[in-house]
Amino acid sequence: MMNLFRLLGDMTHLLCIVVLLLKIRTMKSCAGISLKTQELYVIVFLTRYLDLFTRYNSLYQIAMKLVFVGTSIGIVWYMRYHKVVKQTYSKDEDTFRHYFLILPCFVLALFVHLDFTVVEVLWSFSLYLEAVAILPQLVLLQRSRNIDTLTGDYVFLLGVYRVLYLLNWVYRFFMEIHQIRWIPWVSGLIQTALYADFFYYYIKSWKNREKLKLPA
């Protein structure tokens, strides 16, 4: 069911994608953006939205899911294969071993899920993986000496989107389903906690009109 928090979360997610594509398309640069985080997001969306083929979705849901899958794949393509953009990729700083995140999340999904079906297990896996997918990006930002405005805005909006989706689940608990959904709740809390340090320094830099810089 749609509610204000979910709608705002979706719009914020779209906005952060627009900000990232604006940086890549207009500046012809992906400096400061973690390719490894973007690759994890491709896996997240491909595994989460398998229900496009198995259950009824509204036109809104279909459109949003296709946009998220398509843009995530497009961003990875730009960073890997565009002849100009790929030269700006901060490969030496993007060293987080992201493949170590995939297997533990999948194993966890095999044991902790709503129902032992392919769709439900992969849905749980996508939530677990999304909760930690931002780690390579945060590590990259800590190692970057120069964080440009669009990159900072992109990560901030990405965090806000997750906070709004967490509020969506809280709202649904009180107003709709009256059931605790441990998988999205705990995953959302972990993901929000990972953004906490970044939020602090982002708001601090904005308030003091300073260049965003994270402690090493």
UniProtKB/TrEMBL annotation:
Q: Predominant location of this chain?
A: endoplasmic reticulum
Q: Where in the cell is it found?
A: Endoplasmic reticulum membrane
Membrane topology term reads:
Multi-pass membrane protein
Name the Gene Ontology molecular function terms of this record: ER retention sequence binding
Q: Which GO terms describe its cellular component?
A: endoplasmic reticulum membrane
User: Which residue stretches, if any, does this entry annotate as coiled coil?
Assistant: none
Could you tell me the superkingdom of the organism this chain comes from?
A: Eukaryota
Q: Which Pfam families match?
A: ER_lumen_recept
* UniProt-recorded name of the protein: ER lumen protein-retaining receptor
